[in-house]
Amino acid sequence: MKKRIILTTLSGILIVGSIFTSCMTKTSNDAVKAGITKIKWDKVDSTDVDLYTLTNKEGVQVQISNYGGKVTSWKTPDKDGKMGNIVLGFGSAVKYTPKVPYFGALIGRYGNRIAKGKFTLDGKTYTLATNDHTNHLHGGVKGFDKVIWTAEPVVDSIPSLTLTYLSKDGEEGYPGNLKVTVKYTLTDADELKIEYTATTDKATPINLTNHSYFNLSADPTNTIVDEEIQINADHYTPVGADLIPTGEVKAVKGTAFDLTKPIKIGTHFSEIKGDPIGYDHNFVLNDSDSTKLHQAAVVYDSFTGRQLEVLTTQPAIQFYTGNFLDGTLITDDGKPIKQHTAFCLETQHYPDSPNQPKFPNTILRPGQTFTSTTVYKVSVRK
How far apart are CA 192 and CA 185, in angstroms? Predict the structure, then answer.
């Protein structure tokens, strides 16, 4: 009898286009054909990669590539009905160079950091690729964000795209052949639902997520520091200078990490230790029931009226405020992507869990099935 490890993560809504292109106005007379389309997009390492456009009946569009499972565009209306792209992405696969920090990508085998690129499992020590100074980050040098997935679109009024990938035993240092399936669905409620499933033939750590960068103004020249955020977490995991958890779980009350009520993102920046400044922290969600979706976070942009709600079955969420964006990356229409012009909300298990025995379990074993769901829901306050 197979056991199931249920890990749920909700990843939102995405829409067609390159990195924050110009806006268009959606009217009630616009003809909208819901479904999914495919085009040959580009070549990566001499291999063709495709781009899929998911459209719902409201005209909201999300573009996703089988290269890294990347959400490259998410176009959604603001309070005046103007469509805008609310995620960072590019119109060409070749622009996703190693210098691009995981824009819109699927992350694995283990999202976030593993200290020193090492962990011990069942008495054996494994050495992983180190790509974040001396630590392992987001699956290593060639994580799931840089591989070409097998794609199967579902042509229906509610469009979805299923991606599969076999991560072979020893890949980036991990044990076991890990079979991964990720299903993206764009609902008529303007939700991007992400469902993760995985099995293995050897015990292995696993922590899958999506790394979309959001700017609800749909303009990357606007900072996100004035967007309001609320995270339903009374606790967080403090980190050292290398962003590795100390092993503690601390209360947020009375600290810069108290985001339990709506507050502007940049309010407490000056109180956060770190260089560069900003949030890059794991928040422990109040509701950790992995059998159902629960609200993890809400972000609101008062200028456009857009609101992003994150639902998940995961126990934690990484809130990152684009601290390392420095203007060297340029959008398709020539705009520099500067610090604090996008945020990420990555549903997950805790960082460095394989080395932290007090953190929730992240080990998947043969005969078990990893499952997780995340939903990103976009709406408008008028």
Answer: 6
3-class DSSP state for residue 281? strand
Q: Residue 95: helix, strand or coil by DSSP? A: helix
pLDDT in tens, 187-209: 999 999 999 999 999 999 999 99
Q: What is the pLDDT of residues 56-73, one digit of tens each?
A: 999 999 999 999 999 999
Q: Are the C-beta atoms of 344 and 296 separated by less than 8 Å?
A: no
Q: What is the identity of the amino acid at 86?
A: I
Q: Structure tokens of 72?
A: 């490259």
Helices (H) and strands (E) in the chain, counts: 0, 30
Average pLDDT of the chain, as a whole number: 92
Tell me how far apart the alpha carbons of residues 160 and 152 are, in angstroms, rounded to a whole number: 9
Please choose, from the candidates 130, 144, 341, the residue with its C-alpha nearest in 3D space to the C-alpha of residue 244: 130
pTM: 0.92
For residue 340, what are the domain limits?
A: 3-380
Closest by CA position to 58, among listed 102, 96, 13: 13
CA atoms of 81 and 380, how far apart (whole Å)? 9
Distance CA 131, CA 224 (A): 28
Which residues participate in catalysis according to the annotation?
211, 346
Tally of domains within the chain? 1
Instruction: Say how far residue 231 (Cα) sits from the centre of its chain.
Output: 16
CATH code, domain carrying 110: 2.70.98.10
- The rounded distance, in Å, linking the Cα atoms of 251 and 233 is 9
Q: Which of 45, 41, 40 is nearest to 142 (CA)?
A: 45
Q: Is 186 helix (H, G, I), strand (E, B) or coil?
A: strand
* DSSP 8-state code for residue 163: E
